[in-house]
Amino acid sequence: IVNPGKWLLSAVGSLTQPIFQNGRIIAGLKVAKMQYEQAYNTWQNTVLKAGSEVSNALVLYNYSDEKSKIEQKRIDVLEKNVESTKELMGIAGSSYLEIIQAQSSLLNVQLSKVADDFYKMQAVVNLYYTIARGKLENQSLPANFSTGVGIQLLNNRADVHAAEMNLAQCFYGVETARSKFYPSITISGTGAFTNS
Predict the structure, then answer these.
(1) Are 139 and 76 in contact (CB under 8 A)?
(2) Under a CB-based contact definition with an 8 Å cutoff, are residues 174 and 36 in contact?
(3) pTM reported for the whole predicted model
(4) What pLDDT tens digit does each residue of the chain (196 aa) get?
């Protein structure tokens, strides 16, 4: 009914199997480690590229924001200059040409501010795009941005997430290759029934 010799040979065979296939197992482990290293480098490059894109978008946003604030200060000063020139025309007899020149300067700065505000809005769109890579639903960003971006913001990007999942898959591939160094034990049973 139970053949202890067969069971012993089967157990010894499965315990010694990793010893006789050592070369194939080592080669499989080396391949898995190389795939992991390649996946790690790809993930690292993807995160660095994403961080660079976000950083560039933040720099553009901050530059446009600062320039817009400076233009607003210039507008305030030039508006006072136009009013002062109008008052001088009434009091000291300034020419109408001086008022037109002051208004022209004011208009040029106002147009420059409009362009800066447009670039600021475009920078916000670029920032959303670089952080979310098109996934704009359920995104909320702070009113003021700092130049440091957390890695958790970059995880919203599909390319970073895909590289991270590929890295995890390769990590588990290495662990699977390592597990082949351990013997596999299989227990099976057989039985027979005879009707007499």
Answers:
(1) no
(2) yes
(3) 0.59
(4) 455 555 454 555 555 555 667 778 888 889 999 999 999 999 889 888 888 888 888 888 888 888 889 999 999 999 998 888 888 877 777 678 888 888 999 899 999 999 888 988 888 888 777 777 645 455 555 555 554 555 666 777 788 888 889 999 999 999 998 888 776 666 666 666 677 6
